[in-house]
Design a protein that fits this description.
The complex is a heterodimer of chains A (114) and B (117).
Chain A lengths: L3 E4 L2 E4 L4 E8 L5 E7 L6 E7 L2 E5 L6 E7 L2 E7 L7 E8 L9 E2 L3 E5 L1
Parallel strand pairs in A: 2-11
Antiparallel strand pairs in A: 1-3, 3-8, 4-5, 4-9, 5-6, 7-8, 9-10, 9-11
Chain B lengths: L2 E3 L4 E5 L4 E3 L2 E3 L5 E8 L6 E7 L6 E3 L2 E6 L4 E6 L8 E9 L8 E3 L3 E6 L1
The chains are: A mainly beta (114), B mainly beta (117).
Chain lengths: 114, 117
């Protein structure tokens, strides 16, 4: 148990659907992250929030829309996805955004886009 | 640009064998941090160790040990007397220590370790 909870664990959606991924951390951290993990590729940083402000948007297509209503919750809103967006989406948190920060990860949402 | 290379895609060993996972990195930063994370089948990455670029002392934690060598830009991870529970994907990662985006972790592609009984 890392203190970071992601829901749902699995999601299957069609290309025209709209869905949201949810992440919640119970660690009192100030920074939250979305990472994408595709087969045979390194983890890709998508978004970073620090104290509820987005500090990184790593050239992610607009069909992915993050939301951070408070420092404990992070959402990733999905719409009109493509099959190549199928991946494991991992949420993480850390006390701050320094280079030495240890990240705490959730178990991820395995997304399949049909 | 930063880069992390984990040349071993998959390793398979028998229980009680020792195994070393290789990690080679590239960076122009003089201050940086290196990490190892473990990803078991349950999916969440679990932090194992963090090393800063000024601390080349090797570290041992139980059956785990890490060998950091700046001269070869390597940060290798050894598991002694491996166990089935060590089966997981292991990621090496690098972050910059200064600048506005030093929180960005560059991950290697990971090494899948399978420990057979």
């Amino acid at each position: 148990e890392t203190g970071v909870t992601q829901t749902p664990r699995h999601l299957v959606m069609g290309m025209t659907n709209k869905k949201s991924l949810k992440c919640e951390q119970h660690l009192g951290h100030n920074a939250m992250y979305w990472y994408k993990q595709s087969a045979k590729k390194p983890l890709e940083l998508m978004f970073v929030y620090s104290l509820e402000e987005r500090v990184e948007n790593n050239s992610v297509p607009s069909r992915f829309s993050p939301e951070c209503p408070n420092s404990s919750h992070l959402f990733l809103h999905l719409h009109t996805l493509q099959p190549e967006d199928s991946a494991l989406y991992l949420c993480a948190s850390s006390p701050g955004t320094g280079g030495n920060e240890k990240l705490f990860f959730g178990s991820g949402t395995q997304l399949s886009v049909l | 640009a930063q880069k992390v290379t984990q040349a071993q895609t998959e390793i398979s060993v028998v229980e009680k064998e020792d195994v070393t996972l290789d990690c080679v990195y590239e960076t122009r930063d003089t201050t940086y941090y290196l990490f190892w994370y473990k990803q078991p089948p349950s999916g969440e990455l679990v932090f194992l160790i963090r090393r800063n670029s000024f601390d080349e002392q090797n570290e041992i934690s139980g059956r785990y040990s890490w060998n950091f060598q700046k001269s070869t830009s390597s940060f290798n991870f050894t598991i002694t007397a491996s166990q089935v529970v060590d089966s997981a994907v292991y990621f090496c990662a690098l972050s910059g220590g200064s600048g506005g985006s030093n929180y960005k972790l560059t991950f290697g592609k990971g090494t899948l370790l399978t420990v057979n009984p």
